[in-house]
Amino acid sequence: MESNSGDHAENGRHDDGPSLKKPKPSLLPITAAEIRSEFAHHDPAVARINNGSFGCCPSSVFAAQYQWQLLFIRQPDHFYINLLQPSILRSRLLVKDLINADDVDEVSLVDNATTAAAIVLQQISWAFFQGSFSKGDAVVMLHYAYGSVKKSIHAYVSRAGGHVIEVPLPFPVSSDDEIIDEFRKALAFGKSNGRRVRLAVIDHITSMPSVVIPVKELTRICREEGVDQVFIDAAHAIGNVEIDVKDIGADFYTSNLHKWFFCPPAVAFLYSRKCTASADLHHPVVSDRYGRGLPLESGWIGTRDYSAQLVVSSAVEFVNRFEGGIDGIRKSNHEKVVEMGNMLAEAWGTYTGSPPEMCCSMIMVGMPGCLGVASSDDALKLRTHLRDNFQVEVPIYYNPPKAFEEQANDSVSLVTGFARISHQVYNTVEDYYRFRDAINKLVHDGFTCRMLSS
Ligand SMILES: Cc1ncc(COP(=O)(O)O)c(C=O)c1O
After folding, report:
1. Which protein residues touch ligand 1 with a CB less than 6 Å away?
2. What is the atom index within ligand 1 of the atom nearest the CA of 234?
3. pLDDT tens-digit series, residues 26-58
4. What stretch or stretches form a coiled coil here (predicted)?
5. CA–CA separation, 367 vs 215, rounded Å?
6. pTM, two decimal places
7. Which domains are assigned to the chain?
8. pLDDT above 50 (res 73)
9. Integer CA distances (angstroms), 409 to 172, 366, 375, in order
């Protein structure tokens, strides 16, 4: 690889590559048969009601990705010199419009939300080491932050001398105000003893349990309270909830395109607000593009497969085949997942973990207490049991009972296990009926998690 790798590419031609034409909305909405065919590669034996974990990629987008991979291996030098950078730029322009960013330079493409978190946290770590932040200054995150993001915060912040504060969140939760109250208390604690809160990491949609967080309101509170930077971990958001980064007003916002936006694994965007002057953002994998701005640094991190980053226009073409495009998909997924969540809760005599307005295309459904989910380990074992014996793929969350709940309820009526069900365009009502019937059978057979060996 030449030492000036990437330099020629920015002057490359724009008239080549499989998906460089502007995606046009199709006239006829996609049919049910076409949807089945787009997802015919899914294992037909499995009721996959877990789009949230790994997303999905229709075969038309896969086909476009393969064309990009072929272009690369067919004539790598031409691909590298003429195609790669203009094609990444085209994807970034599409993302910019989808999230209402001001400028394409605010949008970088990276592998995933985990990488985006490392980029944001790395500059926080340097600010501690370089003395711009004082030892003991705080970083605030939600108790339900995603595991690897939590670990990253500790790796980058605690080791650099920062103090990490977790915001406890109620679950089940019934209103935004419950979250806002806890957040305000955590910020007040963060600012006690003369400390500064340097960063707030806020999920847009928490992973487990899944709840839509009022990010705009929390960002506004951060501004009022003098928090230096706000990073929204919105790994699940694009294609799932509406995103307007200007309206939200955070400094950084990341979302995976491979979860709910039909791109193959792995591609995410990281938005960084232009006016966030203090940010010293760099990709953790350094190439000769270091120092030329995050979008260009991220566009070349060594020889690898960049094809997932190049099919955003194909994903846009796919969503435009649905009535209302991605907004129509979001709305329909939301309505259906709420309907299915209510159907399951009713069948099992339980309840959902939050009201519909705090759900996206995922909802938490309480499972019968008699299943005896008594730990996170039990939840994992029950998930495996459902996969192995009923071909249902669904994540399960253990919600430890509060002391007063234990006193007021017997263990059979206490709901401690919640299933996180997703709805995506390929799901059918039979997927949820299979889950309902599997749980009903376990209950009927007197099953409890104690029966599962570790
Ligand atoms: C809230 C949240 N943040 C970060 C991630 C990490 O995403 P990835 O594994 O694509 O980096 C996830 C994954 O589910 C998530 O739910």
Report:
1. 112-114, 146, 148-149, 203, 207, 233, 235-236, 256
2. 1
3. 568 999 999 999 999 999 999 999 999 999 999
4. none
5. 29
6. 0.94
7. 88-315 (3.40.640.10), 325-451 (3.90.1150.10)
8. yes
9. 16, 15, 18
